[in-house]
Amino acid sequence: MVSAIIIILAAAAMPLAKVTATRQREAELRRALREMRTAIDKFKDGADLGQISPLEIKAGSEGYPEELETLVEGVPAANDVTGRKIKFLRRVPIDPMTKSTEWGQRSYQDSPDATSWGGQNVFDVYTTSGGTALDGTKYKDW
Q1: pLDDT in 10s for each residue of the chain, 142 residues
Q2: What is the distance between the alpha carbons of residues 125 and 106, in angstroms, rounded to a whole number?
């Protein structure tokens, strides 16, 4: 009798553990996207305010970084002879859904629903996971 009760409780706990793990990965994905999007916005603000050396802003980039690694490597500060760099990210976060640092990217010139990156700059990032969230939305639409 006791073993039957334990089996029933274990059977109920397994789906709950799976949902909890998925919910945790979704929270990590939201945090990673927020962190990268904030870094992109800070780069854009720095470019618009003249805090970044104009030599580092590519023509036609609209003041956005050329690639995600630019946010990690940093860019020289404007009017600073010491060579100090402004960095926006410590590292490119790992996508908790794909377990990779490869993110989907959109440039300012791409359409909002583009599935391929135009390569001009990095305006937005998204996960390349084709999965569906617990709330029914697609992860790539976050």
Answers
A1: 778 778 777 777 677 778 889 999 999 999 999 999 999 999 999 999 999 988 888 888 899 999 999 999 999 998 888 888 999 999 999 999 999 999 999 999 988 888 888 889 999 999 999 999 999 999 999 9
A2: 6
Task: Give the DSSP H or E segment for 18.
Answer: helix 2-48
Instruction: Report the DSSP beta bridge partners of residue 134.
Output: none
CB–CB of 129/95 below 8 Å? Answer: yes
The 3-class secondary structure across 43-81, one letter per residue, is: HHHHHHCCCECHHHCCCCCCCCCCCHHHHHHCEEECCCC
Backbone φ and ψ for 20, nearest 5 degrees, come out as -65, -40
What six digits make up the tokens of 5? 């009760």
Closest by Cα among 79, 14, 93, 86 to 44: 86
Rounded Cα–Cα distance for residues 14 and 60 (Å): 52
The residues pairing with 124 across neighbouring beta strands, listed in sequence order, are: 106
Model pTM score? 0.85
